[in-house]
Amino acid sequence: MVQKAKILLVDDRPENLLALEAILSALDQTLVRASSGEEALKALLTDDFAVILLDVQMPGMDGFETAAHIKRRERTRDIPIIFLTAINHGPHHTFRGYAAGAVDYISKPFDPWVLRAKVSVFVELYMKNCQLREQASLLRLQLEGGDKSAGGEAKESAGLLAELSARLAAVEEQAEALTKQLNDESTDAAAVATAAHLERKLTGLRRALDALEPGTGSTSSVPSQN
Questions:
Q1: Burial of 220 (C-beta count, 10 Å sphere; 0-12/13-18/19+)
Q2: Rounded CA separation 30/79 (Å)
Q3: I need a surface site. Which of 43, 52, 168, 207 has the fewest CB within 10 A?
Q4: Where in this protein does the record say 4-aspartylphosphate is found (predicted)?
Q5: In this predicted model, which residue has the larger pLDDT, 166 or 63?
Q6: How far is CA 95 from the centre of its chain?
């Protein structure tokens, strides 16, 4: 069973959180509420999130300060942040949002369909990355067992390699289709760049898997997937 992605919704107004939940419920993912920047940072200590929707104007720690904390943490710095704001002070204000690490900056009232589409892109990229990490873990297990005796264990290893290759091929196909869709639809540059980064990691993983095939004579370590 595929685990659902978590989406963090940060806003100090309950009615805004309720509206976001109504818009994003169709994605069938896990929606997590936070009513302040401090509460959001607590949630990020224990859970992994596909994307964060962050209100700019909040009492106490505002969206910019919250984003700065998120980007300083190694665990959370790569999580995409979409800023939501009811105010618009011009290009300088928008630039501050991107400088704080946002992948997008949306003014209220926003189009629900557009917001849902943007969020779905980052959820899909997150799921692909999760699949990629799973393949990498299986490969490392295979490498650690590479010095075992032949016979039944060798047959088991060959079966594992075949399964890994098939699963990786499926992820490669999905990633290629996603990249094509993003390019065709001229989606946000950040999403396109993230998809390209995912494909590069897939290429490295494929090379490592090919090196494990019988007759290659290579059992070098799996390339880093960071």
A1: exposed
A2: 16
A3: 207
A4: 55
A5: 63
A6: 23
Dist CA 198 CA 175 (whole Å)? 8
Q: Among 179, 226, 223, which Cα is nearest to 205's? A: 223
Q: Please report, as a single letter, which amino acid is at residue 14.
A: P
> Does the pLDDT value for residue 33 go beyond 90?
yes
Nearest 5°: CA angle at 18, between 189 and 40? 60
Cα gap 202→118, rounded to integer Å: 23
Q: Which pLDDT band holds residue 225 (cuts at 50, 70, 90)?
A: very low
Q: Across-strand partners of 51?
A: 7
